[in-house]
Give the backbone structure.
Amino acid sequence: MACIYYTASSLDGFIVDENDSLAWLLTRDIDVDGPFGYEAFAKSVGALVMGSSTYEWVRDNQPGDWMYEQPSWVLTSRPGIIADGHPVHTFSGQITDLYPALVEAAADRDVWLLGGGHVAAQFVAAGLVDEIIVSYAPCSLGAGARVLPTRSEWKLLESAVNGDFVCARWAKAA
């Protein structure tokens, strides 16, 4: 079991632009079965957690049934943001208090920090992130939400090209 921050980023380190849009990402070519592809990664995930902005983007841009089969949490203190029919838990508090529930729900599979950067930064600051996997798109945004807005040290484990993306996997530095 590992806690993994798996995301995409612009070359200048943003996961969404200044309008909270992912349009820059969705027009890129990537093989979901290729290196660092989504399909294999999703099979390794037993539970996932995201921030409220990420949840709202998924809810608003992927309408209908909840798209993840894994137990899911949203970090938020705002009541009523979860759409009817979405089997999603909300949590407000210290992520160190949530983490045991995530690990238990994941069983022997991984915990996915789906986003955003501030959520990942909280887990990194608490020493809970084992790996970071980032797929870098060939563009710069100039502004938006940072991929990881905290200081931390990592060691590169592997990298590959997948479609338009340069992908890399890091482990926390010892």
